Amino acid sequence: MANLKLWDFVKEVKGTGYKWVDLTHELSPETPHWYGFKPLEGKLLFDYREGTPDDMMAPMRCIQYSVASQYGTHVDVPLHFWGDGRDMSKITVKELVYPLVVVDKSKECAENAEFTMTVADLEKWESENGRIPEGAFVAFRSDWHKKSNLDNPDENGNPHYPGWSVDAIKWLVEERNIGAIGHEPADTDPSYVTTREDAYPYPGEQYILETDRIQIEVMRNLDQVPAVGAMIVCAFPKLKDGTGFPARCFAICPED
């Protein structure tokens, strides 16, 4: 007799008792993105034409898009910062689903635009919520998705946004063996690190990708997800030699 447990599971999570939260920005020329990239562009290749429903040469609309690989809500894979790292085609399907942990530092980020997540913050979170599970996707909630400009520039045009400390990411990898990380700004590291001229500007991003893990950037709606108990699905193309691409991510959360 056929095993229908997975069918029952799908029916269960689509029913009452669960909510589905879209963690992805809409993809368009207005999508929040890193300042160094051009907005998404679309060129109409084919468009509808007049015809009858019986016309076998049916009209269609087809658009050719031009977009940077790390645009909007997107995945970064190891090859993005590590020449010997895996490309997108090498990411396994099991790496698209994780238990989801949300570390809420939105209040701190509102008070300090360059707030930096530390090991102490993660240990405090564990004291309140329990141990971060192995293989988890750890998301840094800052509520940065609510800003119209992710760079949050001052009057002189200098960016100000939060990020992870390298030590915090190392702790998650080495002490908890997490599967991936995610955040709402367009960079892993805080702005005061990425704008330094006397040191390598992306140490946190370099580290997480060189541990052969992925990350998701420019997330949204983490304020609708509980600290524990949810799962995350991260979908993106199986692109040969791809370093990253716009992604569709969502969380499935228990209602209570």
UniProtKB/TrEMBL annotation:
<dbReference type="InterPro" id="IPR037175">
    <property type="entry name" value="KFase_sf"/>
</dbReference>
<keyword id="KW-0378">Hydrolase</keyword>
<dbReference type="Pfam" id="PF04199">
    <property type="entry name" value="Cyclase"/>
</dbReference>
<dbReference type="InterPro" id="IPR007325">
    <property type="entry name" value="KFase/CYL"/>
</dbReference>
<protein>
    <submittedName>
        <fullName>Cyclase family protein</fullName>
        <ecNumber>3.5.-.-</ecNumber>
    </submittedName>
</protein>
<dbReference type="GO" id="GO:0016787">
    <property type="term" value="F:hydrolase activity"/>
</dbReference>
